[in-house]
Description:
The protein is an all-alpha fold. The chain has 8 helices and no strands. It is elongated, with a radius of gyration of 31 Å. The termini are far apart.
Amino acid sequence: MARYGQAFKDKAVARLLPPESAPLEVVAREVGIGAGTLERWREEAQSRPARGRAWTAGARLEAVVTTAAMNEAAKSAWCRGHGVFPADLDKWRASCTTALSDPEDVRASPQATRADRKRIKELERDLLRKDRALAETAALLVLSKNGHLGFAPSQWAETPGYLH
């Protein structure tokens, strides 16, 4: 018997519930699940509070478009009927606006890009310097443990050519 995750179930059931209200047979064919199973999942979802239901991206967009021209009283009534808080609608509207914004609006300025490149080069140089110092320290440690050096690690600082 196949087992499906809760996210998969929620997405399939969201297609069956308002505002999308897709036919059971269509959703069953699209997701490859038996109609009886989907019907059981829908009954379970409807027995839960409305806040626990998942809304697909398309359904959220449709809700934003549907409620855009409504006054506050009508919008509140719509929200009560569909189990959505008005604050959720506001978040969905902001998300839609951000997703549809002009790419020029979110593009970084040339000055910011130059500053970022300069900072990245500085960090890469610093990382390379530290990487080399770490490699030298590791080599000296291995040599001192093997007895190839005639002095102890405490004497490294006094060694000519030792990096500080």
